[in-house]
Design goal:
Layout lengths: L6 E11 L4 E3 L5 E4 L8 H7 L7 E6 L13 E5 L12 E4 L10 E8 L3 E5 L9 E12 L2 H6 L33
Antiparallel strand pairs: 1-2, 1-3, 1-9, 4-9, 5-8, 6-7, 7-8
Bound molecules: zinc ion.
GO molecular function: peptidyl-prolyl cis-trans isomerase activity
InterPro entries: PPIase_dom_sf
Subcellular location: Cytoplasm
Amino acid sequence: MKIAKNTVVTVEYKLSDAQNNLIEDGRQPMVYLHGGYENTLPKIEEELDGKETGYASTIQIEPEDAFGDYDPNLLKVEERARLPGPLEVGMQFEGLPEGGDDEEAMIFTVTEIADDKVVLDGNHPLAGMALRFELKVVEVRAATEEEIAHEHVHGPHGHHHHDEDDEGEDGEEGDHFRTHPIH
Ligand SMILES: [Zn+2]
């Protein structure tokens, strides 16, 4: 079966930066619903469209087609006391940018901890980086009607609805893969 809109694609991948430093070894393959549902990066869909099981390639994706340029305005310094403890560099919080509203909640990563101040970075950890994906298609199947309606993949491993995508779907017992390779 060829990869086309409304197929579910299983891809083994290895993610490196442009200097070939390994970022993620993809021990868990990515499983996503193909067809512009924003389940994965558009450049990956573009590369795999029309291909079949066994297809392998390596693509490089520039920051503007991945997680954007690094924006120094998204760094903020917060009072240590305003954050829950214990804190470690690398921890992530959901928060609002300065002057933002609920529509703009974003993930901040702790990048520095001083005595009473914490530096939070609202950039995606992969912002500003060119990404190199080694891809290998291992399975292609037709999506179910329910998957198409939900715009994501349902899997056999008992994953729950990812709440940010599925508000208002309470009561449905769908199983879900995490379809995005970047955490
Ligand atoms: Zn669902």
